[in-house]
Structure formats: C-alpha cells, structure tokens
C-alpha cells in the first residue's frame, strides 16, 4: 500500500463549514508560517463552486474560516470568465508569494486563472493564463533557465486529453508548449489524464502525482498515478508508473456528489521523507493519507511505461 489512508478520514466536510455548502473537495494545501493552509472547493446549492480556507497545526485537523476565500470576481477581466464559479485550486510558494491556480468557468468555457496571496487574508487576481478549454494547471516551485514552468491539460477532440508543459518569463505570457504525457489505451487512465498535485522535488527527479480516468458502463473512475520528470528539464519524463497508486475504495470515495472519484490538487512534503497527500473523495469530502516519497519514486522506476 503506497498511500496510507488516515484512519479518521474524511478530514473536512460540509458540516464543518460555517456557511452553507453542499461539498468540500479538491483542495490545494501548502505550509504557511508553520501551519497547513487548505484552500478547498465547495459546491453551492446552485451547483456552482467557490473556494474556502481551512487551517491546521498538524495537517490532519482543519478548522474552516467563517467566510469563503475566493468567490467569482466582480472585476473585469476576471468577472466574465468566473461567472459559473471557481474550482480545483492548486497553491505553491515561490519567491515570497503564494501562487494559486484555479479553474474558472463561464459561458465561454473553462480557463485557468492565477491569483496571489502573501498572507492568506487577501488574495489578488493576477491574470487568466489560458484560453478555453484548459484545466489542471500546476506550476513548478522553481524556474528553469530563468523561466517559470507549468503542466496543464488542454481538451482536444482528436487526441485523448493529455499533459502538456509550457514556460513563461513572467507568469503572464506562456509558450514553448509541448505535449509530454499521454493516456495509454486500455490502462486505468486510458480516457484522460491531468496534473494533480504541484510537482515535488526529489533527489531523483520531480514527482508528479496526476489523475487518470477510465470509462466504465457505470460511469468514469478517477484514480491517481505518479510520474518522474528530469530535475533540470521537466519536459523530459524519466518514467511513468504504470499502476495506479490510489483508487476509490472507501465509502467516502465510492459514493458522494460524483461516485468513484479520488482527485488530488495537493501533496505536502515533510522533512522526514514522507508526504501528506490530500484528495477529494467522490467530489464531496476532503481526505488525507501519507506516503514515503522514495517509495513513490521507486514505483515509477520499478513499474515504468513510456510517457507518450
Ligand atoms: C473533473 C473535474 C474535477 C472532478 C472530477 C470528478 O472533470 O470536474 O473537479 O473532481 O471531474 O467529478
């Protein structure tokens, strides 16, 4: 068992939130002043999503703030693209600020926005960094040859939805895009894959925990897998682990708002070589588990498949 589920999952759910929500899931988590800050997605009762904030001393027990952290912007140019809600935030720390990427839904499709905070009290929209239709942007917490790098997942009718890398000098303009990882037919992630947690730096490469989807007669099953990217050139994938590392098994993952979903937006590395992996269970509750980082890297190298 690579991921050890916390015995008291779920760790955050709608009953824990001081304002009315239908779900708590797909949260970004990062350390800030020794605390774990969780920015989580919630469906409102109209089916649209907002983002809340919960804090923890130990990464397992979270307390939600009284008010939401991000709701659809009322300022252009963001207003037009966030009308239907903000979803699935990822957060990293870089150069003194916390960078938050999130999906923005509107009548014009789904785009990804970038917002910044330094104190988790206020948040500033920075830029919409994709056109429609993109989701799942994770930014590497380091520059490469002076450029920021991100993974994302565009939608295409022709090719199964795959992972791409892009670069930017300023977080605003992105380019040099390249497809780096595809689903494999009749494997657990054959339908589509997408970046999950922001990549984690290890001695042997960047660890990328991603999600993969398999279509069944009973709907789609969302699972998690791992890939390892070269340290100096993250567009080069050393290995993709061919077997999933987590699949829906507990009741809170099998039934909920959307059945059979484990979906991650965050993994927090610890000093002892472990990480805390956070995932949404069935799009309804937040869960946590622990893993040994070296074991996840070994998993990529010991059960490899080609990236493309
Ligand atoms: C994806 C996104 C995720 C969600 C998943 C399972 O397409 O909408 O936010 O967790 O589906 O429903």
UniProtKB/TrEMBL annotation:
Transmembrane segments: none annotated. It comes from Saccharicrinis fermentans DSM 9555 = JCM 21142. GO terms for molecular function: glycosyltransferase activity. This is Beta-1,4-mannooligosaccharide phosphorylase. Pfam families: Glyco_hydro_130 (PF04041). Gene3D superfamilies: Glycosyl hydrolase domain, family 43 (2.115.10.20). Belongs to the glycosyl hydrolase 130 family. The keyword Transit peptide does not apply. SUPFAM superfamilies: Arabinanase/levansucrase/invertase. Keywords: Glycosyltransferase, Transferase. The keyword Zinc does not apply.
């Amino acid at each position: 068992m690579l991921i050890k589920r916390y015995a008291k999952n779920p760790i955050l759910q709608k009953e824990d939130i001081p304002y009315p929500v239908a779900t708590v899931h797909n949260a970004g988590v990062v350390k800030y002043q020794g605390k774990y800050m969780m920015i989580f997605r919630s469906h409102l009762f109209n089916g649209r999503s907002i983002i809340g904030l919960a804090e923890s001393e130990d990464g397992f027990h979270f307390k939600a703030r009284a008010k939401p952290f991000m709701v659809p912007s009322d300022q252009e140019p963001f207003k037009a693209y966030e009308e239907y809600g903000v979803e699935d935030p990822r957060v990293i720390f870089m150069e003194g600020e916390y960078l938050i990427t999130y999906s923005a839904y509107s009548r014009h499709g789904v785009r990804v926005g970038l917002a910044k905070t330094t104190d988790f009290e206020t948040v500033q929209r920075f830029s919409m960094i994709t056109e429609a239709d993109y989701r799942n942007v994770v930014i590497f917490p380091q520059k490469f040859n002076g450029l920021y790098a991100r993974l994302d997942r565009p939608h295409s009718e022709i090719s199964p939805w795959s992972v791409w890398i892009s670069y930017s000098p300023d977080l605003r303009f992105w380019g040099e895009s390249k497809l780096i990882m595809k689903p494999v037919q009749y494997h657990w992630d054959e339908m589509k894959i997408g970046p999950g947690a922001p990549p984690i730096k290890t001695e042997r490469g960047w660890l990328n925990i991603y999600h993969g989807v398999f279509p069944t007669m009973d709907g789609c099953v969302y699972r998690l897998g791992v890939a390892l990217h070269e340290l100096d050139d993250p567009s080069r994938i050393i290995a993709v682990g061919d077997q999933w590392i987590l699949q829906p098994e507990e009741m809170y993952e099998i039934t909920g708002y959307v059945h059979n979903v484990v979906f991650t937006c965050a993994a927090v590395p610890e000093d002892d070589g472990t990480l805390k992996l956070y995932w949404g269970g069935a799009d309804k509750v937040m869960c946590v588990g622990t893993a040994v980082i070296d074991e996840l890297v070994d998993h990529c190298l010991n059960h490899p498949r080609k990236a493309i």
